[in-house]
Structure formats: C-alpha cells, structure tokens
Specification:
6-stranded mixed beta sheet, 5-stranded mixed beta sheet, 12 helices, globular, single chain, alpha/beta, 334 residues
Length: 334
C-alpha cells in the first residue's frame, strides 16, 4: 500500500473537512494568542455573598495576589441575593473572554435542585476554573444528648423518633441537606428547625434549644474545643486536619455521608481553554504559598487546588446527590 505524504493526505480530505480542520487550527491559534496577552485590562471578580465573611476575605486575597502578579486591577464586585443566583446570572451572561469570573460555593449546585426556574444552567453556562478549598460538614450534638458516637446517636434517635431537633442555616442550605442525607442513609427521624443563617442556628444549639446540627465544621471548632458541643463525625472521606480525633461517617458505619462546603471559581461557558488554564495555574500557585496555607488553615479551610476537570466532576456529582436528597425529602424553599 502506498504511503501518502502529509500534504497528499490532506488533499484527499473533502473540502468541508479541510475547512473544519483549518477552522480548528485558527481557533487554537486565537486562543493561544489571547492567553499570551491576557489580561490586558481590569478583571471583574463577582462575589455573590455580602462583604466581610471568611469566603469574601478569601476572594479578596486571591484578587489582590492576582493583581500583583498580572499587573491589572482585579475588582471584587459583591452581588448578594437570591441565594447566590443573582451574581451567578451576571457571570453566565457575561462575555466569555476571562474578564469576568465568579466566586462560587456549594450553594451553586444546591440551587440547581431547590430552585426549579433558575435563569441559567448551573453546569452548561459555566466553565470550571478551580476548586480552591473545602470545609467538611459534620454531626455535632449538645452535651445534654446522652450519646458519644454516631452509632449511639442513630440508636438513640430510633428509640426516640422525631424527638431530636436539628437546626440548620435555612431551608435548602448545605447544613439542611446534610441532615436530610443523614436521615435517608440511617433511617432516623429528626425534626428540622431552619434558621436565618448559621450564627443563630449555632446559638440555639449551644443553648440546648436544638440538640443536633450538621454544620460547617470550621464554624464550630472553637465550641468543640471549649466543650460546648460534642462532635460525632465529619462528612468527608478523610478526617479533618483541625479535628484529627473526630472520625468520618464511613468509619462510623455510614458510608455515603459526604458533604463539603467547598469554594471555587467559575468563568462563563466557552471561555478559551488557554485562559482557564492560565487562571488555574496562577490560583493554584497562590493557594500553595506557605503564608496562604497558614491563612486558610487559620480559617478552617482545607486546601484542594484542583484542576478544572476535577472541579467539574465535583459539581456534577454534587448536583446528582443533592437532587436525590431534595426529591426524597420533599425540600421546599420559600
């Protein structure tokens, strides 16, 4: 069989095929050129939560360090509202050129399950950039509850169905769905008490008004160390660095009990891959700096620093998980 030279092989490809190949080559060169000159003007970093919290502080630190490295302003634009969907919608409808990015947390994928009429698709309308940090949720109880392990809590709850109240930061929030996931996995009956935020929920747990909570564990670490609440498990595959003596749900016989309050960055869908890669490499470098690691640990954040592909996989997995929980529990958001 005669071997064709490369140009002879190309000549035998139909015209439309050659045009397609040429188009791909042009797009690749354009994307590379864009990445080489990016950024050449200010970047808008949309943060869909109020200013001042630990997640907002993280966003501002990332923005400051990106600005120092790239020599262009990175402006944090706080756009709270609609459980984070207001800011997400702004970014979903922005040009896919890398000059508008979105800080996002686990609420982004939860919203896809609890709000049926979002003005965007939580997956298709965004390009994953990096999953920066994750804080495990877990199970804690008031010291008045006569249990010291997760199996004991399950046994006690089954012996007293519906008598234990669990507080959450609100209907459809991560701590609410973590509780519903726990209920579905163990078959226990707990009564949900929603609050307007984690602070009042924790306050009532400390006061004994509620007996159980499935919180962001970083929030309750000081109360655990002071003996005001008792930790039973963390909802992650491995133990939390800040609480090495607290076992995982899997270790305590509840496989599948995994919920993390993660934080990441998204860009509009179709943002050139080369620009996404440039963002990822720089943010990962920032996160891995020793002083940044110390700041994250002090806030209770667990470093992840994922690839875009890994972040996309986490989002898809969480949407599937939370949609099952929401449907099974009949969760409704006012």
């Amino acid at each position: 069989m005669k071997h064709l030279r490369p140009w002879e092989a190309v000549a035998r490809i139909p015209l439309l095929g050659r045009l397609f190949i040429c188009g791909l080559a042009v797009l690749t060169m354009v994307g590379f050129a864009q990445a080489q000159t990016f950024p050449s003007r200010p970047i808008r970093f949309v943060v869909p939560i109020p200013a001042g919290g630990s997640t907002d502080v993280l966003a501002r630190e990332i923005a400051r360090r990106l600005q120092e490295t790239w020599g262009q302003p990175v402006v944090v634009d706080n756009r709270p509202g609609a459980a984070g969907s207001l800011g997400a919608d702004i970014v979903a409808k922005s040009p896919a050129d890398g000059y508008t990015i979105l800080l996002v947390n686990v609420g982004h994928v939860i919203n896809a399950s609890v709000y049926p009429k979002l003005p965007f698709d939580s997956i298709k309308d965004f390009a994953p950039v990096v999953l920066m940090t994750a804080v495990p949720l877990g199970v804690v109880v008031h010291p008045s509850v006569p249990v010291k392990s997760l199996p004991e809590l399950i046994a006690y709850a089954k012996a007293h169905p519906g008598q234990l109240n669990f507080g959450s930061s609100g209907n459809g929030g991560a701590s609410h769905l973590a509780g519903e996931l726990f209920k579905s996995l163990t078959g226990v009956q707990l009564t949900h008490v929603p609050y307007k935020g984690s602070a009042p929920a924790v306050a009532d747990l400390l006061a004994g008004q509620t007996q159980v909570m499935f919180p962001d564990m970083a929030v309750v670490v000081p109360h655990i160390k002071a003996g005001r609440v008792r930790p039973l498990a963390v909802a992650t595959p491995k133990r939390m660095a800040a609480l090495p003596d607290v076992p995982t749900g899997q270790e305590m016989g509840v496989p599948g009990f995994e919920v993390a309050a993660w934080v990441g960055i998204l860009a509009p869908a179709n943002t050139p891959k080369e620009i996404v890669t440039k963002y990822n490499a720089e943010v990962v470098r920032i996160l891995q700096q020793p002083d940044m690691r110390e700041k994250l640990a002090a806030q209770g954040f667990e470093l992840v620093a994922s690839s875009p592909e890994q972040f996309g996989a986490v989002m898809r997995t969480d949407i599937e998980k939370f949609s099952r929980v929401v449907k099974a529990a009949g969760v409704k958001v006012d």
